[in-house]
Design brief:
- The protein is mostly helical.
- It is built from 10 helices and no strands.
- The longest helix is centred in the middle third of the chain and has 22 residues.
Length: about 170
């Protein structure tokens, strides 16, 4: 536990992060700090606390979606196939639902608008989370001219899940 606390502290105090982060006014280190605190909580077996902290990171900045699958598999992996595990999963699920409900309560009447702003697929994939792949591919193949936006969004989702899933199952 001491080593994980020290490692987490060193990661949180990386001097380049605040310089890069605040240089373009994104404030990513808040969500990264919450994610690091979630990791620390999980190393101490505080699963509900870690889940709540990660939900806060995710709700602060959707950039934390990059870490969602590892968290999901790490938290739920050892808890399947036993009655005690099912009870823990229900407890974790309630923690996640309550955390999301608290974060989204102020936006109850405008949630759809908020989601559209968070994931602006109307602007195309070149401005979204998988832009590097699509920009590189567009040199050889103009997929945005060949496929409808809905098809591109589904393809991006499929390729993202397909590319990260093998590492989650090992």
């Amino acid at each position: 536990a001491v080593v994980s606390t020290q490692s987490t502290g060193l990661l949180a105090l990386t001097p380049a992060q605040p310089l890069i982060d605040h240089g373009h006014f994104q404030y990513n280190c808040i969500s990264l700090g919450l994610t690091l605190c979630a990791v620390l909580a999980l190393t101490r077996k505080w699963v509900c606390t870690g889940s709540a902290l990660f939900c806060l990171a995710l709700n602060y900045k959707q950039m934390s979606l990059y870490h969602a699958l590892p968290f999901f598999f790490y938290i739920l992996g050892p808890r399947y196939n036993t009655l005690k595990g099912i009870k823990e999963v229900v407890k974790i699920g309630l923690t996640v639902v309550l955390t999301f409900a608290l974060c989204w309560a102020p936006f109850a009447y405008t949630a759809g608008d908020v989601v559209v702003r968070m994931f602006p697929f109307n602007r195309g994939l070149f401005e979204d989370k998988v832009a590097n792949f699509w920009c590189s591919l567009s040199i050889l193949l103009k997929v945005k001219d060949l496929l409808a936006r809905v098809t591109l969004v589904r393809a991006a989702l499929f390729l993202t899940v397909f590319s990260v899933l093998p590492s989650q199952l090992l």
